[in-house]
Structures are given as structure tokens and as C-alpha cells.
Amino acid sequence: MIPFLVFCSLLIPVNLWAAITPHMHSDVSMRILHGICTVVLLPLLWTLWKQRRLLRPVPALILAIFATVMVVVNSWITAMGMGVEFGWLDHLLLALSELALIVFFLMAPDQEPITDP
Q1: Nearest-angstrom CA–CA distance, 77 and 65
Q2: Four-residue CA torsion sign, 6, 26, 28, 78
Q3: What is the CB-side half-sphere exposure of residue 94 using CA atoms within 13 A?
């Protein structure tokens, strides 16, 4: 899990840089970045689904909706390519989603409750 979280933390400055310099990257690099960011959000959605009974419902629902929207939008951007209006905003939201992913996995409860021996 730690290598995955380190990789996700490296995507934050990459997306912030892409937001600052929206037209300085190629179509291929943009598709790769959006594709990787989409794949990175899938374990979050899977874990939210598996642990839905252990999590607080409202924050988990908000995070799930946000992550689902990001997966759908970024899948579309990965398939269609450059030319998305307000693409810089999507990169800011991707950085935010990766930060939320890291915080969730660092603070999420264990899958099985701890019992006293």
C-alpha cells in the first residue's frame, strides 16, 4: 500500500504543473496522465464500496460521488484527447482527488474490527 500512496503523492505535483501549463504538454502525455489518474482512483472506489458499513455515510458518499465523476470525466478525456475546455480545472480537481485518496487510505478504518483476546 505504501508504494501505491507514494505514487499517488507524486501525481499531485504533476497535475498541479499540468494545470499551470495547460498547453505545454503533448496529446499523448496528456492521455497517459489522465488514464493513470483514472486507474489510480479505482482502488478508492472499490474500497469505499467494500467498507461502506464501516464508514460514515455522508463523507463516504461525497467522496464516492467525487471520485466517480473524476473517473468518468477523465476516462472521456483519455479517450477523446486534448481540447477540453477548462482542462486546467480538471487537473486541479485531479490533484485534489489524489490528496483525498491519500488521506482516505491513511485514515480509513481496518476492514476487520479489532477484537480483544
Answers
A1: 18
A2: positive
A3: 32
Q: What's the pLDDT tens digit per position in 45-101?
A: 998 898 888 888 899 899 999 999 999 988 988 888 777 777 788 889 999 999 999
pLDDT at residue 113 in the model: 52
In the chain, what are the domain boundaries? Answer: 2-106
Decide: 97 and 11 in contact? Cβ < 8 Å.
Answer: no
The overall pTM is greater than 0.85: no
18 grid coordinates: 499540468
List, as own/partner pairs, every contact residues 82-88 make where C-beta atoms lie below 8 angstroms and the sequence separation is at least 24, other chains included: 82/27, 82/30, 87/22, 88/18, 88/19, 88/20, 88/22
**Placement of cell 498547453 in the chain:** 23
